[in-house]
Structure formats: C-alpha cells, structure tokens
Amino acid sequence: MNTDLQENVNAIRQWARDRNLVLGSNPQAQTVKLFEEGGELAGGVARQNLPVIKDSIGDVVVVLVILAAQVGVDFNECVALAYDEIKDRRGRMVDGVFVKDEPIA
To answer: DSSP for the chain?
Structure first.
C-alpha cells in the first residue's frame, strides 16, 4: 500500500481518466456519490466501526479527487486553500465540536 498522498492522488486521477470518469461523467453525479460515501462514513462513526470509517474516509478522498478533475481544479490547490483559511483560526471545543471564534469587528 502506497502511503504517499501525492502519489495516491496522481494514481486516483489517472485511474479515473483511464475509465473515462473525468470527461465521460458529470460533477452532479460525482457530488451525489460524495454524499453517499459521506453517509457511509457517518454510519461508521455512529457505530464506532473503525474499518468502515477508514474505508469511507478513503472513498470520500477518491470522490473528491475525481470531482476536482471533472470541474478542472487542482485537488492539492483546494486543500492548500482550505488549510490557509484555517491555519490561524482560533476557537474552542463545545460538546466535542470545534467552534471558531468570531472575528472582532
């Protein structure tokens, strides 16, 4: 099993191209697939089923890599933008959920 994320992203992208999932499918169908996989992840978390959680997290990443390719954006750029947005975020845990502090106006 390859553990290098960039190699895996590249392999997923190529796998999707080879199967005509990038040009031959559509982002709406891939978005539905994302919610399907998210539901499986939620079920795994609710049942504390670690194998399902791990499989579902991987499936969500695969779907997102393919969706990014379908709409013509770079997956890594999307992740970098998201990290740049949260990297300095401050907040607190409320009932096990991180709640960001509101900016002072």
So the answer is: ----HHHHHHHHHHHHHHTTTTTSS-HHHHHHHHHHHHHHHHHHHHTT-HHHHHHHHHHHHHHHHHHHHHHT--HHHHHHHHHHHHTT--EEEETTEEEEPPPP-
